[in-house]
Amino acid sequence: MASKLTPAQRVALARHPERPGTADFIKHLFTDFFEQRGDRLCAEDGSILGGVALFHGKPVTVIGHRKGRSLEENLSLHFGMPSPEGYRKAQRLMLQAEKFRRPVITFIDTPGAYPGLEAEARGQAEAIARTLALSSRLTVPIVSVVTGEGGSGGALALGVGNRVLMLENAVYSVLSPEGFAAILWKDASRSDEACGVMKLTAADLLELEVADRIIPEPEGGAHTNPAALFRTLDTALVKELNALGKLSGPALAAGRYKKFRAMGAKALRKERT
């Protein structure tokens, strides 16, 4: 594990521009990746990257948020904030995985869904809701990995997994620290303080039983030694998929439902005591 960092420092690492993204994980963890584009309804949204690949020789479906490395790429990808077309593409890939009995692996790294007028007009909330509903009832294994910044429903849409893993310096929350501070204290400059209040770090979420496992990062963050991180995550994914592969389809769907229904119960018990 890395040295002790404050929640605000972990948020900064989760947002680091050189942090490995979905495209990097696909390149280094999988082989024979075949990208699939378009939602078959409206358009292609590059901020969701997905397709079919081989993981240790076995077919899987991979879906993740994609950010750019340059300003131009980030602008074209809305800084990793998907539009409805992206979530509908994810639905298409999930249905395909269900049909062909492929496990689904998702990579989460987004500030949230794109809030633009066009996205809202084309049904942003409906697209997220349908993605949540669909992933909750799939009868194939789903492993979700929060790799950077997991924000709001835009992140949760890809986060309904049988197992939820978080990289050590990843964060996962209902909204950004800046948004939290602006709403609660009417002062977005108190975002560092908000990071500590929100309980958004991997350690916090493991304690709250939202995350199931923390993936250690190299000292200084994932970007300092990506190869070491890829090896660690590869081992974790193999273990999780092997365990989930022993369960029946109905058991996978029921277990996922039970897992998410129970979230928050531990925090509530603590509050009452």
From TrEMBL:
Record-listed E.C. numbers: 2.1.3.15
Involved pathway(s): Lipid metabolism; malonyl-CoA biosynthesis; malonyl-CoA from acetyl-CoA: step 1/1
Signal sequence segment: none
Subcellular location, record wording: Cytoplasm
The UniProt record lists the keyword NADP: no
InterPro entries membership: Acetyl_CoA_COase_a_su, ClpP/crotonase-like_dom_sf, COA_CT_C
Keyword Nucleotide-binding: yes
Cited SUPFAM superfamilies: ClpP/crotonase
Protein origin, superkingdom: Bacteria
Chief place of localization: cytoplasm
Recorded GO MF terms: acetyl-CoA carboxylase activity; ATP binding; carboxyl- or carbamoyltransferase activity
GO biological process, one term: malonyl-CoA biosynthetic process
Catalytic activity, as annotated: N(6)-carboxybiotinyl-L-lysyl-[protein] + acetyl-CoA = N(6)-biotinyl-L-lysyl-[protein] + malonyl-CoA
Protein family (similarity comment): Belongs to the AccA family.
Function: Component of the acetyl coenzyme A carboxylase (ACC) complex. First, biotin carboxylase catalyzes the carboxylation of biotin on its carrier protein (BCCP) and then the CO(2) group is transferred by the carboxyltransferase to acetyl-CoA to form malonyl-CoA.
NCBIfam families assigned to the protein according to its UniProt record, in alphabetical order: accA (TIGR00513), AccA_sub (NF041504), PRK05724.1 (NF004344)
Subunit structure: Acetyl-CoA carboxylase is a heterohexamer composed of biotin carboxyl carrier protein (AccB), biotin carboxylase (AccC) and two subunits each of ACCase subunit alpha (AccA) and ACCase subunit beta (AccD).
Protein name per UniProt: Acetyl-coenzyme A carboxylase carboxyl transferase subunit alpha
Species for this entry: Flavonifractor plautii 1_3_50AFAA
Classification lineage: Bacteria, Bacillati, Bacillota, Clostridia, Eubacteriales
Underlying gene: accA
